[in-house]
Amino acid sequence: MQANVELINVTKRYGGGALAVDSVSLAIPSGSYCCLLGPSGCGKTSTLRMIAGHEEISEGDVLIGGRNVTGLPPVQRGTAMMFQSYALFPHLTALENVAFGLRMRGVAKAERLRQADRFLDLVQLGGMASRLPSQLSGGQQQRVALARALITHPKVLLLDEPLSALDPFLRTQMREELKRLQRELGITFVHVTHGQDEAMALSDIAVVMQGGRIAQAAPPREIFEKPATAFVARFIGGHNVLALPGGRFAVRTDRCRLLPAGQLPGLVSAIEYQGAAVRVVVAANDGQTAEALLPDAVFHAAPVEPGAAVTLGWDAADAHPLPDAA
Ligand SMILES: Nc1ncnc2c1ncn2[C@@H]1O[C@H](COP(=O)(O)OP(=O)(O)OP(=O)(O)O)[C@@H](O)[C@H]1O
To answer: Could you tell me if the CB of 253 is within 6 A of ligand 1?
Structure first.
């Protein structure tokens, strides 16, 4: 079972009048993976909590599967939420923690445990049913929390920074796991993250938020290729935002080269070795800063040192025009 999620002019004003979410409209297709991303305080968590029903909506409507759920309590929305802190019960085993998801729904104990066993298998923790949370690693605790959310058969799973407490290696592993589960189960995932990489890797639709509004909502490749504003280009990274003759442009750093006759002359201010690529930062003579991400072989064929006079260049077709404001 899956459902689409629709936000129509959704606004959140907290006590004191602070506007956290400002008339946001968004359509998340059924069975898709949607990431909400943006800097701290941009309104991601408030938006997620309004979809879940954990936060009252000041104005506007939330529809799930075409049904207006704006005034409904969380359990009647067909959603489940997985939190940043896994909030497992320390005195219950992994199996009992997962089964707890069904206890609130009045399912008999034997049936709860039987289903919990199946969901522990689904998150690849079959052998750890009798362990307490303190006997599990952070990544394993998180899988238990995921199974506990999924056991209620939600149509929409809401995830609030589920990977932020993990180390980089586990994060990548768990990211793959989330994507696999979402594909297998076919339900709609809405996932809040600070991480551009995470959103790129996971989303069918990525929603970049800024100051309580949506700056851009699109498949990640479209956002990377055609950032709607300078804010989006800077936030997702990998772009130079430059004032050039003809206006403001975003130019991907991996499309920039050090050329004999490029567009932006200046001095190399920093060089950073990144393994497969080398990042060369140029302080342009006109006061702007820009960088080129050069494949390591390209850099090492003609290496430069900090302080060297260079010219940064790119194909005209790689300069993506941006609106002047924002
Ligand atoms: N309970 C609250 N009362 C008052 N203001 C709040 C409350 N919760 C959030 N805010 C404010 O609303 C704005 C949006 O907060 P929100 O938590 O939705 O942002 P966020 O993008 O999820 O941030 P973060 O990434 O730091 O979690 C912020 O300015 C925040 O200070």
So the answer is: no
Residue 231 lies in a domain: no
Classify residue 144 as left (phi > 0), alpha (psi -120 to 50) or beta: alpha
Rg of the chain over Cα atoms, rounded to whole angstroms, equals: 23
Residue nearest to atom 17 of ligand 1 (CA): 45
Domain total of the chain: 2
pLDDT at residue 93 in the model? 94
For residue 230, tell me if it sits in a domain. no
Residue 228 Cβ < 6 Å to ligand 1: no
**pLDDT tens readout for residues 29-85:** 999 999 999 999 999 999 999 999 999 999 999 999 999 999 999 989 999 998 766
Burial 85-98 (b: 16+ CB within 10 A, else e): ebebeeeebbbbbb
Distance 75 CA to ligand 1 centre (A): 23
Q: Has residue 1 got a pLDDT over 70?
A: no
Q: Ligand 1 atom 22: the closest Cα is on which residue? A: 45
Same domain, 81 and 131: yes
CA dihedral 171→172→177→179, nearest 10 degrees, is 110
- Residue with token string 């923790």: 125
What ipTM was assigned to the predicted interfaces of this complex? 0.96
Measure 18 CA to ligand 1 centroid, in angstroms. Answer: 9
Ligand 1 atom, smallest distance to 12 CA: 12
Closest by CA position to 320, among listed 222, 235, 210: 222
CATH code assigned at 212: 3.40.50.300
For the stretch 9-44, pLDDT in tens is 999 999 877 899 999 999 999 999 999 999 999 999
**CA distance linking residue 205 with residue 267, whole number of Å:** 39
Tokens of 175: 């990211």
- State the Cα–Cα distance between residues 116 and 323, nearest whole angstrom: 52
Query: Whole-angstrom Cα distance, residue 191 to residue 202?
Result: 9
Ligand 1 mean position, distance from CA 242 (Å): 31
